[in-house]
Amino acid sequence: MRALGDRLQAAEQAAETERAAWVREKEYAATRRAELLKQYDDVREQREKIAALGPEGECPTCRRQLGVEHAAVLGVLDRQLQAVIDDGKYFRGRLEQLAQPPHGVLSAEGERDKLRDELRRASERAGLVRAQVEERARARQELDAARRRADVLKQGLDARPTGYDAARHDSVRAELLKLDPIALEAAALEARAQRAEGLVPEAEQAERDLSTAEQRVRTLTEAVAAEGYSEERYRLAKDRYDRALGALREAELALVEARGALTRAEHDVIEVEKRARERAARELEIAARKSRLRLHNELDRSFSDLRADLNAAMRPEIAELASGFLADLTDGRYDQVDLNENYEVTILDDGVPKPVISGGEEDIANLVLRLAISQMIAERAGQPFSLLVLDEIFGALDEARRQHVLGLLRHLGDRFPQVILITHIEQVRDGLDRVIRVAYDAARGVSAVRDDAPVPLAPPPIGAPDESVAA
Question: Which of 64, 224, 347, 415 is deepest in the core (most CB within 10 A)?
């Protein structure tokens, strides 16, 4: 059993090791497949987004137009999708292989179960052997006692006279046979005598109880006779008692119902009082909210009037300033803009609103509006603005209009001494005084800043690190 126990412990450890390795490998395969499924969804969503954008769309990473790189980006995403699909097929097949325990696990567990059965059978055999050993010890003790008894009997037999009288033996046996019926009758009589002795006290007690009961009957009979008992009157009295008992039970039920109704009424009173308090509190809250509503309405009217007054006072001035900037940027082609109540810009051509404008014209309109507002704020503040920051204002402008914008910004040097442009357009670098380039280093996960000379550079390919030029 000890040897089997050691072997079973080693087999259990081996089986546990095999199963743990199988479980780890299966969990790893399941985790990798789940990651690949998520990666597949992300890449597919990104590819669908890029495909929907088309060559004219902007790159979601660098915000530049995809252009001729659109097909190359789709090809990279397709290869990534195919790689994810291949890896997913591999791990799916691996999960199918690992769905059932491998041969090593089954073999180790089979060896373990086999040793368990052998150990169980050995334990049963050991228990049987221990029981036999104990039985052997008891048998030896009984054998020793029997031998001692045999020695004593042998000594007694040796001490008795020898010889056998057959006639005397037959005579004694005959006498015994005659005495057997008498012995049986004596035993029966003795048993009956013992039972009779036990019944005598019970009979005496029963006699006394009977006498007492007879005396009680006589007493009750005399009392009934003295009271003038009548069976008819007893029946009538019993009927009245039964009716009174029924009325009492009905009254008790009515009392219970009345108490229940009282409890419900008290609860209803408490609920009504609670609701009355809640209603009073809500009326107070409604009154307070009505007061706040009136105040808000009054403030809303005041703010609306103030906005109307401000619009009436400022919109013409802003429109006039914007018209001047527009004339400078368009070489006099357009010299008038109009602003509605929401400060939406409308370009006027000979006093007539131009219904359709290009993307570049829309950018110019928004730019002159910002410049006009900035100049008006500086004039109202009584001191010039030292800084003007413009973000991505060249996106839809052609080369000529870009140069016009740069020239206009230089003419505004007396109003805005420092102008910062944030842009991805490399062609404007020649007209800038200073270029600071910000590039993202994907390898290190940080942004790098360097002071760059304003010399023409080829535009970076789609997907290159995001760079911004400021001057």
Answer: 347
